[in-house]
Write a structure and sequence with these properties.
This protein has 13 helices and 15 strands. By secondary structure, the protein is of the alpha/beta class. It folds into two domains: about 45-60 and about 85-230, no CATH class; about 245-390, Rossmann fold, CATH 3.40.50.
């Protein structure tokens, strides 16, 4: 992979056409200020905490358990105890753009962490700007267009922090929401829940080529930025009610044991999945390709599950709906092969298991074999890991 540096604004220094377009747009905006104004493309920034007129901190739970030893092999370390704080900042007279919910004040991008990902946050194109009424505060519930259907980012970057804020007793009365005009299925279901459960009626959709000027905006920013699965107990407690609302009238699922397939994903496919599927079926597992199922059915599956087995990936975000005591087994490719460690490996699902009282096991399997991080799972190792997890003790819920 070719890496690229540009003013510290390219996430993980990856060279892509998207990053190249950003560099060219930034240079054009600097040369021609009229373009900068037309595109709403900031060329300088300001930390959001400095621009805020108010701050309502919501501390997360505290997790003081040590990471499983496997994570050190993957190059993942964390010093305990783990905690972050969601800061609900109040901002006056802010522009919110439709591509990624980027916030701009006085022509400056409001950055939310020391190495803000400018490339993902901004797009150089004309925006149709409208001004919202100043009779209420609005909450920025926008998700980046490229990630708005990503269950993990939607839940833990947007929805669960909002639930914590709504339940905190410190929320502005009559709060409105700024949302993506092109909703994903999970977003639509969550917004329907917010309307019914909290009576929120002021919903402002913003399309990709639009922006809204907001007289008073609330925005949740976690400090530190990661690990994002670490949430306020108020927000975590709301997951059961949210999941029950979205699952709706779907009856109880017959499958209590789920294997989450990544056959519909571009990255981290399990290459020998078809060969070990008979073994899984013999142990009572149902193979689930989540992309083939409506969101309500996905959530219903996990609400009823007794054990979930999956390669590392976004599908595991659905353990948010699992009941305490559910067994979770996460497989990571071994870093020992010629292609090295898997990209984007995190300990978020271990952390989420701590918060929800789930029994979590992680296991290294075969090395990466393809450029898209494809790997294999030894069939005997798969079977033995499952049997050991089933026989293991229950986990206790982490205390805040």
């Amino acid at each position: 992979m070719v890496s690229l540096q540009y003013k510290g604004r390219i996430h993980k220094s990856k060279f892509t056409m998207r990053s190249l377009r950003y560099i060219l747009s930034d240079q054009a905006a600097r040369l021609f200020p009229a373009l900068q104004r037309r595109w709403l493309l900031p060329v300088e920034s300001r930390p959001i905490a400095e621009a805020a007129s108010g701050d309502r901190p919501l501390p997360s739970a505290v997790v003081d358990e040590a990471l499983p030893d496997l994570y050190a092999t993957l190059g993942i370390f964390a010093s305990g105890p783990l905690q972050l704080t969601d800061h609900v900042y109040t901002l006056e007279d802010v522009l919110v753009t439709g591509w990624a919910g980027a916030m701009i004040k006085d022509g400056l991008l409001l950055t939310v962490r020391p190495q803000h990902n400018w490339v993902a946050a901004l797009r150089a194109h004309p925006h149709k700007v409208r001004t919202l009424p100043g009779d209420r505060a609005y909450f920025n519930l926008m998700a980046p267009v490229s990630a708005k259907g990503h269950i993990f980012h939607w839940l833990f970057n947007a929805m669960v922090p909002l639930l914590a804020y709504l339940e905190s007793g410190r929320c502005d009365p009559g709060l409105g929401l700024i949302v993506n005009a092109a909703e994903s299925e999970i977003q639509k279901a969550c917004i329907d829940y917010l309307k019914e459960r909290y009576g929120i009626s002021a919903i402002v959709p913003v399309a990709q080529h639009e922006a809204v000027r907001v007289p008073r905006l609330n925005a949740v920013i976690p400090v530190p930025h990661i690990p994002r699965a670490l949430q306020s107990p108020l927000g975590v407690a709301g997951l059961a009610d949210l999941g029950g609302f979205i699952a709706g009238q779907i009856g109880e699922e017959s499958a209590k044991r789920i294997y989450v397939s990544r056959d519909d994903a571009r990255l981290r496919r399990v290459l020998n999945e078809k060969s070990f599927t008979p073994r899984l079926e013999a142990l009572g597992f149902q193979r689930a390709v989540l992309g083939d199922l409506p969101i309500a059915r996905q959530i219903a599956l996990f609400r009823q599950a007794e054990i979930v087995v999956a390669p590392h990936g976004a599908g595991l975000a659905h353990i948010a709906w699992c009941k305490p005591g559910t067994r979770i087994i996460e497989f990571f490719p071994s870093p020992g092969g010629p292609r090295g460690r898997v990209r984007n490996a995190t300990y978020d699902y271990w952390l989420l298991s701590q918060l929800l009282g789930l029994y979590y096991t992680c296991q290294l399997v075969g090395p990466i074999e393809t450029r898209n991080d494809g790997f294999s799972i030894d069939e005997d190792l798969l079977t033995s890991t499952i049997k050991k997890a089933i026989a293991g003790p229950k986990m206790q819920i982490a205390q805040s």
